[in-house]
Amino acid sequence: MRIELNRKESLLRQAISGLRHHRWGWIALWFILFLLLATIFAGFLSPYDPYEQNRTKSYHPPVRIHLIDEDGLHWPFIYNYYLVDPIFKRYEPDRTKKYNIGLFVKDSTYHLFGLIPCNIHLFGVDSPARVFLLGSDLHGRDILSRLLYGGRVSLSISLVGVFLSFILGLIMGGIAGYFGGWVDNFLMRFGEIIMSIPGIYLLLGLRAIFPTSLSSVEIYLLIVVVLSFIGWAGLARVIRGMVLSIKEREFVQAARAIGSGHMRIIIRHVLPNTLSYTIIALTLSVPGFIISESALSFLSLGIQEPYPSWGNMLTAAQSVRVLTTAPWILIPGLFISITIICFNFLGDGLRDALDPRFKE
Amino acid sequence: MIRYILHRFINMIPLLFGITFLSFGIMKLAPGDFLSQMALNPLISSETIELMRKQFGLDQPWPIQYLKWLWGIIHFDFGYSFTYRVPVATLITERVLNTLLLTSTAAILAWLLALPLGVYTALWRKSLFDQILSFFSFATISVPTFFLALLGVFFAAKTGWFPTGGAISINYAALSPFDKLCDRFHHLILPAMVLGIGGLGSLLRIVRTNFLEMMRQPFIMTAKAKGLHSNTVTWRHIFPNAINPLITLLGFEIAGLLSGAAFTEIIFAWPGLGRLILEAVMSQDLYLVMGSLFMGAILLILGNLLADILLATIDPRIKLR
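YS: structure for the whole thing
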């Protein structure tokens, strides 16, 4: 027991000290932590309620924050924008009145950690002006607020999905490699079938099993399950290969000799030895899950309106007209990309830190 | 060689069997079918629906439906599409050709760019150009294809240099043969570029790593020690060896391109297999979904087989059993 604990600790320490030397990996780690915190405190950071519609401010462009007025330096302020061309959604600022950006302002109520009701937001302005830092969508909802709340959905789906598919992959790979024979054959052939259908085709097919109209919680769970069903096969294959070699090692034979059960040997002795590989693969497979989730939602088969997700915020961009008049609706795509870059960098950094084969 | 190919084909049979079973199972598990949607339409009488149910064989138990479908596939009969009212085989053939045109153009583009750039960055390692390119390839690996495609459409709409979607113009039928070709090419170039850039990043990294690895081999040092010109060393000794393992990648590449192509097709309104399957899933067109899933898998498996055979013909060290 004691040895086990030391080993885990050292792995973590090894990862951290290795990452420090990997500049981009280290930056990526901090960015991901920052993003996770931002989505957890989405209510506080977002100036508005993500569902609050504003019919008069449809496709409102990002507001300009002014620091300088006619008297020189000024506390950051914005102008109220009014619609001049309802067809092409052109807005003009009304320069007669300035709206100072307030800190810790009271606005819509939200629940901190889903429990504590709270109505203080980091920043905001007096009505009727709206501080749309990243613009607004068709219904005049604040894109920044939706981005933060949507990140909560997209990131949590991906992380939970990755976790689940890894548990599946570890168990399947562990069983296949440990027992061998027909169990191995069956599991691996099954995985091969899954892997031989192009990912997105399988995703669409599996999505078709379930009705299109489900409650948001059901859809959330559905996406997690579908993604992990597709995701486990690749990992199971590699784990199987590693288990095949590990099971011949002395300590496994020793465990068998003292009469440990099969499952105990797999879980306690064999799988922990695949841990460093698993951590690397875990990090590197998060991007695939983020892409799949946002792709499903983008095609309106995943998270449904009015709930935001990074994918479904991009759905409107399928119309060329919307795309040219309001290009800021592409911003969620930028966030998806940056998040994926970060996970890739982090995975690279972890590989350098934990996998001796990649050390130069 | 022929024995090897035969062996591979025989191995493919259980896999294909599994795929057909999985795709059939998926569609059978789906609640309702195309006809139950039709039943909601007050203009269609229930007798018509019963008649259609019989006609499409949907009134029989599922094992019989499955076996009938399987029997059909062997005769290249994939059943009948409910929505399009044409045989699925006709529909799929047409769409597969479009998808292949798009993916192969994209793959050629990606390889043509990746090879020289990869070699160049390996030779001039840690130069500014190398660093810019490695960041670029990291970025293209990370940007999801559907976002890249959206950016492509945005670019096309803003500049007006390319059409924003479709495979042909509205007035296609009225064009002269030469203009027809130009029109097709004009529609093809942007989606192919989007798809190609999506695959370029990983390819570039692999070319570069392979090349660097080969440069460190002892026989390269020997070649240099013999006093060979550096160009000869690069192109006669390093290049052929570095490129070999890449051919296996070709197979994987096809898989990635197929998945990526689905989004590019959907966003650019390109009439390919990916778009077809999305439409089929949305309208629960049973035989169409099964057929397209099956075709997608076939393309992927054939891609892998092709890569193996290519590798065997090019690399004399590999002996096929």
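YS: worth flagging: The first helix of chain A runs from residue 2 to 21.
IM: good catch. Also Chain A touches chain B at residues 189-190, 192-194, 196-202, 204-211, 287, 291, 294-295, 298-299, 314, 317-318, 320, 323-324, 327, 330, 333-334, 336-337, 340-341, 344-345 (CB under 8 Å).
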